[in-house]
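Quick check before the chapter quiz. The format below is the same one you will see on the exam, so make sure you can read both the input and the output lines.
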Amino acid sequence: MRITILCVGKIKEKFYRDALDEYQKRLSKYCKLEIVEVADEKTPDNASAALEEQIKEKEAQRLLAKLRPETYVCTLEIQGESLTSERFADFIEKSGVQGISDIAFIIGGSLGLHHSVIERSKKHLSFSAMTFPHQLMRVILTEQIYRAFRIIHKEPYHK
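Here is the expected output.
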């Protein structure tokens, strides 16, 4: 299975990169994981709603350009569906059984996702009603993907 984490912006902090590298290494025995970053747009303070919409649209164009037509898209949204780790594992496992071999999880920029990206998504996930830094969300998502594969393979992992 190919899993892509498609996100807006770059990770600058070494500790986030180190955590992502560790989970990518662990996941290499279960799937092909790729993290793809697209450039973010600078948002001026006190930006108008119209300008914010333009910024989200530019980021959306970059995100959508990275998707293959056959990719099953999952967006991370505060309003999305909340799953337990076991149900998330079940989703990944059932996707494979149903012949879905290419999944992309999309994390938007600081303003969120443009409606065009949300419309392309087949699954809308929420990890919390809270807002997390986008860099940290990548680590949390990657850890949950790793946990899901451990659950699928009935391998021990801390609870």
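If your answer matched, good. The mean pLDDT is 95.
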